[in-house]
Amino acid sequence: MKKIAILGLTGSIGRSAADVILSHRQEFQVVLASSHNNYQELFRLSHELAIPNLLLTNTELKSRITDTPENIRLYWGDSELSQLLAELNPDIVLNAISGSAGLYSSMVTLSLGIDLALANKESLVMAGHLINRELQRSAARLIPVDSEHSAVLQAIGSTPLSQVRKIILTASGGPFLQLPPEEFSSITVERTMQHPTWSMGPKITVDSATMLNKALEVIEAHWLFHKDYTDIQAVVHPQSIIHSLVEFCDGSLLAQLGFPNMKLPILYALSYPDHLISDLSSTNILDLPWLSFLPLDEERYPLYYLAVAASAAGGLMPTIMNAANEAAVTLFLERKISFPAIHRIVADTLNSQNNFPDPDLETILAANLETYSRIINDN
Ligand code: NDP
Ligand code: MG
């Protein structure tokens, strides 16, 4: 039985992971789970999954929690994570924390030599170079949970990466694929939350509407599969059936298909490299809709092009881009700025920023916090 730690159990990915575990109780046992604020849901899920150790990362809640459920050890704050993981020694950590807050946990997990199932793409966006250095130093494996990268991993199989010519990531196009760009200033939070094919947490749902999410995934693919940015393409595929494709050096294209459901890539990341017998998801090929592909329109999705171009410079630029976007998305969700202002804030921030090559973790975390706080305070 595989011992698992789930960081961010109360989120969209975390709850899907809980369903995966409940359907595979013989294979997986959760030894540790975390959340930030939502302790009631964390306690409820820990009861359902019989999780003995819980971590609440928001230490400000300490005074509010008077009774902890029976048979549960409750720990507080990020600072406890390293020791907890060292003691519990899980076989794999699923990092399902949202945003830049997930980077610290990824680094801690890999530095302990523990396999990392990574949903938190921001870890690779901000510190792909450090994560790859950590992977070279230890025997730990990094397994993507993002559906596109899970598809690429499966399509590549055991083929040497040198024989992969191109990675093609698919994007649904989000809720505004058909909306004329001149109407973007009237976009509301409610409309943005209505993603056509996926049900996800609020931040990634906004990122899917601006297409910033796909830029994050291009950077994620760059670090996971060691491909140049020029060898990674994104296309709109509104049906979200083909989760991504790989083009090999002989011109052969391989894709992974299925109805959109995050439980499948989560299960694969937890069971990698095996495919477990499961009835979590099934796709009858005769039920599939017509599959179509479109280029990513630069007028509709300017943030995608801006973010990929800036991030390809490397160094601190991906961190600055990600922090600016995270702050802008927070402001949009709080209804303080308009939808097009997300692009404007990221563009202004990148324009006013000097790059810094090969930053260490401390520099990355400081730049992230400084950029995020400045934008929140200025708006
Ligand atoms: P959610 O917002 O639904 O969940 C986020 C989780 O992280 C919650 O458990 C939350 O705890 C916890 N959390 C929030 N802030 C902090 C913090 N400062 N420190 C520690 N934990 C924190 O996000 P999603 O599940 O949608 O996304 C999680 C990650 O997975 C993101 O990086 C996203 O890009 C990626 N991803 C998501 C997909 C999806 O389908 N949702 C698909 C592919 C990738 P609490 O509930 O207590 O606030
Ligand atoms: Mg994805």
Q: Can you give a write-up of this model?
A:
- The protein is α/β, with parallel strands linked by helices.
- It folds into two domains: 2-144, 3-Layer(aba) Sandwich (Rossmann fold); 149-313, no CATH class.
- The protein is built from 14 helices and eleven strands.
- The strands form two sheets. A seven-stranded parallel beta sheet has the order 4-3-2-1-5-6-7, with helices on both faces. A four-stranded mixed beta sheet has the order 9-8-10-11, with helices on one face.
- Helix 5 links the parallel strand 6 and strand 7 (142-144).
- It binds NADPH dihydro-nicotinamide-adenine-dinucleotide phosphate (NDP) and magnesium ion.
- Residues 146-148, 217 line the site of magnesium ion.
Notable characteristics:
binds NADPH dihydro-nicotinamide-adenine-dinucleotide phosphate; 14 helices; 2 domains; alpha/beta; 379 residues; binds magnesium ion; four-stranded mixed β-sheet
